[in-house]
Amino acid sequence: MAQHFLPHYMRIMTQGSLASRLFERFQFLVPARFRVRHPVVPVVRLSGAIGAVMPLRPGLAISNVATVLDRAFSIKGAKAVAIVVNSPGGSPAQSHLIFKRIRAYADEKKLPVFAFVEDAAASGGYMLACAADEIFADPSSILGSIGVVSAGFGFDRLIERFGIERRVYTAGDKKAMLDPFQPEDPQEVERLKDLQREIHQVFVSLVRSRRGAKLDETNGDLFSGAFWVGEQAVRLGLADGIGDIRTVMRQRFGDKVQLRVIEPARPPLLGRLFGRRGLGESSLIDPDALLGALEERASWSRLGL
Question: Which residue stretches of the chain are H helix?
Fold first, then answer.
């Protein structure tokens, strides 16, 4: 009798908005074969500078993203996976590792991937967006910055002014290359630029392989490190359209699509409060975290954000 009653009960409960909401909330009490199943799209947020991994400012790295991606691509019945990107970039290696992991899961699970850009998908952040089959942005989002940058400070005149002598001993004459306390060596600078050109070529090849004929390569600035806002990025082929995750996913999978945010594991409360310091130490300020915050702030500032 229960088998005949439940389908009739489901039809009644799904009529009308209040009844529908009640049914959806308590349908876990109904046997699995009678449940109403809506399309599910797992959502992974990729926010912050890439590679700046430290206790008080985790950043993005394959070590703390891999588990979240594994959970997202393992959800049964998922129609796609959405990644929300909000990053000014960072480590080229970590960007590439995360990109490859997303593509590996997408190919293995045969799931389409959609990227949604918030404030920025710049430099390594744009590499993450390129892991998606389609990229969407806000009209005010910043995309691009397909280039490589290295930045630092020179302190050789400062220590000379105060009579400080720098002593460096190495095995290997390139081991102390670009030491900020030594005068800049043109040969070392050229060596760094050679490395940057190699990394840049990897980045350019990746973008071309993912965006293909969509790219407007008549624009000479496309791979110069320049960046653009939403509509401009769409015209250049760096993005596929303007749109937010809720609107686009409803258009693709219907109004009943469930966007399921996959949260990363949070560190223990005491670890978040004290960073790497022991409980007996008086200061809660982690110098590495402070430096990381300044570096990340500089990354955002280069984009005018």
Answer: 2-13, 17-26, 62-73, 92-109, 124-129, 156-161, 186-211, 230-236, 245-253, 269-274, 287-301
